[in-house]
Every structure is written in C-alpha cells, then in structure tokens.
Design brief:
The complex is a heterodimer of chains A (247) and B (287).
Chain A lengths: L16 E12 L2 E12 L3 E5 L6 H9 L4 E8 L2 E2 L5 H6 L2 E4 L11 H6 L11 H7 L1 H5 L10 H13 L5 E5 L7 H16 L3 E6 L2 H7 L2 E6 L2 E7 L3 H12 L2
Parallel strand pairs in A: 3-8, 3-9, 6-7, 7-8
Antiparallel strand pairs in A: 1-2, 1-4, 4-5, 9-10
Chain B lengths: L1 H31 L6 H19 L3 H22 L9 H23 L15 E3 L4 E3 H23 L1 H11 L1 H6 L4 H27 L5 H16 L4 H21 L7 H12 L10
Antiparallel strand pairs in B: 1-2
Classes of the chains: A alpha/beta (247), B mainly alpha (287).
C-alpha cells in the first residue's frame, strides 16, 4: 500500500489535523532508526502505533517530542513546523509525553512528581479531577515516587501530564508489565480522556488492549509506516495484522 | 577551658566556610556533574569583590554581602555558558581539569596584581567588639558569621528540598531530558544553578574577608580541605554537605585543643576512613 495514501484515511472521530508527520527520519548517533515515517492524528482521536519491538515506535514519539538528537523531515503540530524546536518549546505548544520507562523521579515524593510538569495552558485537569480518576494517588501523596507499585507509577506518569493543559498526549506502552486489572483501569482512563476531548497518540505492543481504545492504527516496521486502517476495518485486516505483528 | 571554647569557636567559623563551600560544590556536582575546582578561586573573588567595592566604590560590607555574590555569580554563569556547558556528558576528569585550569589562571592574575600578602578588610562597625558569655568571650563578628552561614545553608537546603524550583532541580539531576520534555528550559536552569553555587562561594569569601584578610591564594588553601569535606559528606547531598562542613570544622577545632599536631591532618584521616568504610560518603548515594 502506498504510504502517501495513509494520511487520507477517513477518521472515525475528530476533525482538524492536529499532528502531521511527513518523511520523518531519525538517528541515534550513527544508527539510522527511522527511514521515513508518515502519519497524522486528528483532533479527538486515539491513534495507535503498532509494531514489533525495535520497529521505531518509541523513536517516533521521542522525535515528535524533540528528544532525538538528529531528525529530518516534517512534524507539524497545530499547523506549525516543530521539527527544529527544542523539547521544552514543543512541550509548551501543548504536547505531553508519558515515557515507556514512566520516568518517575525517586528524589521527589508523589506530590512533587505530580506537580512537576509546569502548566503550559489553561484547561488542564484540577487535582480534584485527577484524584477522581486515580484515587490511589491521593493516599500516597507523601510517598517517595519510586516506592509506588508499577501500576501506581504508571497512573502517576499519566496523571501528571493531565494537569498541564496539554490536549495532545503521547503514551508509550502504558500497559507494559502491568496486571490485567490495572490495564483495564488504564483503558477506562484513556476512554474517559478521549470523551473529554483529549487527542492521544499511543504506542502499544498489547494489541488486544489497543483495540479497546483506538480509533485508528498505523503499523510501523523497520522505521517506516507500512500500513494503516481504522478500527471499523479491524476485522477485515486481522490476517494482515497477525503477519505484521507475528502474534 | 577558655582555650577549648576558643578553639570550638574557631572550628565553628571554619565549619561555616566549609559548609558554604561544600554546599555550593554539592549543588553544582548534582546538576552539572562537574567537580568545580575553581570554587576556591571564586571564593577568593568574592572577598576581592568586597574589597574593590569598599576601596574603589566606597560601598561597605552590608551591600557587598549582596552585590559580591551576584557579580561573581554572573562571572560564573559566563564561565558555564562559554566553557563548562561543552563538557556535558564527558568524563568528570575533563570538568576537573578545566575548572582547575580556570582556578590557576584566576589566582595567577590576582597574584600578579596583588602579590601574596593579605589586604586588610575592616569588620563593619555594627559587628565590632564582643560579648562576655560568662564562660567565654565571643567576638560579635565571629558569632555573626556562624549564625548567618547557618541561615544561608538552611535557606539553600529549603530552596532545593522543599520548593517547586528545587523539585525541578532535583528532577533534572535525575533525568534532564524528561524534565526538558515537560517544558522546562533545563540548559538555562543549569546555568543558574552554577551561578547559585558560585554565589555561595563568593558569599563565603565576603564573610571571611574581615577574619582572614583578602589574599589571592586564600581559596587555594581552603579548597583542599573543602574537597575532603565533600568526599566525607558524600558528593551531591545537600544536607550532608552542610552537616559535614560544620562537624568537621568542630572536629578540627577540638583536635587543635587536644592534639594540636594532628589538627591539619585530622580531616584527611577521616576522609581516608570514610572512603575505606563507605566510598560514597556518609550521606551519599551510589552514583
């Protein structure tokens, strides 16, 4: 399937294009990781990047966030080119990132971790709303950040970026290594955020989980987007998907 | 007994300088990962700044207490922007060599113009004289240095451990990339942190000017002991460097009373013992 067409796939939700990535290439030192990534995300959508380990999904998110040293191509966010911007400027434009390793700070307690990302615009969730979504966090506010369980750390990592007012969230494997009941809770959270108008770009290995929340999928392989389809086309694409992911 | 108290006071005074200097070193090491060998030279510059302010500008001790740390702090931030920032991510040795070189150059320049002897700096009128505490005579200026240093140290600790700005600093020490991806200008914060650490050194220099005179090598003599303090306390620990600074000053003072021959080496003996038992320092975390 020609890559250029992927961007024209009809969105099931949303309207205006929020993020548009064209011919994105990226390098870690000498290694060329991304070889021309093309995809877009529309306002209010949950879009999932699927693919095997090492395909370039995380690197794609990091490139959008501006934390990969060398990157070329085009990344447009809210109709503004951001491929040259530094990551603090990108964050200030309203993109929030929840890294795969969660990035909870051990020298900060839970409250400090939660309050760490600065508010970049109005419209973020209040602490009250965050505690409604994640009641566990409220009871552990004065614990050291890294003393939380894996699931609680993941919730903290998501919760802290909801305060900032960023409406575009990038979540890198939020279910990795978590118990099914926690995964379910994170699924509910993502659905809830979507219903409140957040736009979410998700990276997942767990296809079963992704299928419960995503509007559209892109398949990443060897640093390229090789396919893409909407959730409504899922059953028609199941065979292909099994081949791509090898599941 | 009088002599013991006098040595304890001297120990507390020295401890104040150790604490202010090792605190600055700890803050800088935590954030920049640089062992700032220029710290002694910057301490000396603080004292000279106070001297220049008084003798060239007629500006006295109290304004100098604020102006000198700011001026020297700005000098430090220029060093960071133009030189130190390029060492990020390299081995500690490069930062150590560069700052050691800076120290030699700065001290050399001052020695060229002012020789090695001390320049006098008078105790401000308000702090002249002393008090009889009953068990000993306390020169007011010395008491002031101890109390003021303690306040500054605790304020710095509060800033770093208990405020939002401090949370940014601590987080950026752990993971600067992620903190920057939250929208915080980390490079600017690093520059300001270096300025803060340098400002603390300069402040110690101003405080010491009336006690130790103003000399180009005043920092070079002190910095070796301060590094021993930092090693004992643990690199990068804020409270550790404060407590160790004061404690070692007192231990040194006690040694002067009980066994004067060892007073110059006691800190280094302790350093060796700590390194043997707990290489990360008393309060340090493993790197």
């Amino acid at each position: 399937m020609p890559e250029a067409k992927l961007a024209d796939k009809p969105a099931t939700a949303g309207g205006a294009e929020v993020l548009s990535v064209k011919d994105l290439q990226a390098w870690y030192g000498e290694s060329h990781i991304l070889h021309g990534i093309n995809f877009n995300v529309k306002a209010g959508e949950v879009v999932t990047l699927l693919g095997r380990n090492g395909a370039g999904k995380t690197t794609t998110l990091k490139s959008v966030m501006g934390i990969i040293g060398k990157r070329t191509g085009s990344i447009r966010f809210d109709n503004e080119e951001i491929i040259r911007a530094s990551s603090d400027r990108i964050a200030r434009k309203g993109i929030a990132f929840c890294p795969e390793e969660r990035g909870i700070f051990s020298s900060l307690d839970v409250r400090e971790n939660l309050l760490l990302p600065p508010v970049v615009r109005s419209g973020g969730l209040s602490l009250e709303q965050i505690f409604t979504l994640f009641p566990n966090l409220k009871e552990r506010l004065s614990s050291q950040g890294t003393k939380l369980s894996g699931g609680e750390q993941q919730m903290l990592a998501i919760a802290r970026i909801l305060r900032t007012g960023a409406r575009f969230l990038m979540l890198d494997e939020p279910t990795e290594g978590l118990a099914p009941v926690i995964i379910q809770q994170i699924g509910h959270t993502i659905a809830r955020l979507k219903s409140e108008g957040f736009t979410i770009l998700l990276v997942e290995q767990n296809f079963r989980f992704a299928s419960t929340v995503a509007d559209r999928y892109y398949i990443v392989e060897h640093g390229k987007v090789i396919d893409g389809f909407a959730n409504s086309e899922l059953s028609a694409n199941m065979d292909k998907l099994h081949t791509y992911l090898g599941v | 007994m009088q002599a013991l108290y006098a040595q304890l006071l001297v120990g507390l005074i020295n401890g104040s300088f150790y604490a202010l200097l090792s605190l600055g070193l700890a803050v800088i090491f935590g954030m920049l990962n640089i062992i700032n060998f220029a710290h002694g030279a910057l301490y000396m510059m603080g004292a000279f700044a106070a001297y220049f302010l008084l003798n060239l500008g007629g500006i006295g001790y109290w304004p100098a207490l604020i102006i000198a740390p700011i001026v020297v702090g700005i000098f430090g931030m220029i060093l960071e922007r133009t030189m130190l920032q390029w060492l990020a991510g390299l081995d500690h040795l490069y930062g150590l060599l560069l700052t050691f070189g800076i120290a030699l150059i700065v001290q050399g320049v001052f020695q060229n113009y002012f020789g090695s002897s001390g320049l006098p700096y008078a105790i401000p009128d308000q702090l002249k004289g002393g008090m009889n505490l009953g068990f000993m005579f306390l020169p007011i200026y010395r008491g002031w240095v101890v109390v003021f240093s303690l306040v500054v140290c605790l304020a710095t600790w509060f800033l770093i451990e208990k405020t939002q700005l401090g949370a940014y600093l601590r987080a950026a020490t752990e993971n600067p990339t992620l903190v920057r991806a939250f929208g915080i200008n980390v490079p600017r914060m690093i520059t300001l942190t270096y300025g803060l650490g340098v400002g603390l050194a300069a402040l110690a220099g101003v405080l010491s000017a009336p006690i130790n005179q103003v000399r180009p090598l005043m920092g070079a003599d002190l910095i070796i002991v301060v590094f021993a303090v930092v090693v004992i306390g643990g690199m990068g620990s804020i409270m550790g460097s404060i407590i160790t600074g004061f404690a070692l000053g007192v231990i040194e003072g006690l040694t002067k009373y009980f066994y004067p021959e060892a007073s110059n080496t006691v800190v280094f003996v302790l350093m060796v013992l700590v390194l043997l038992v707990k290489p990360t320092g008393l309060t340090g975390r493993a790197a």
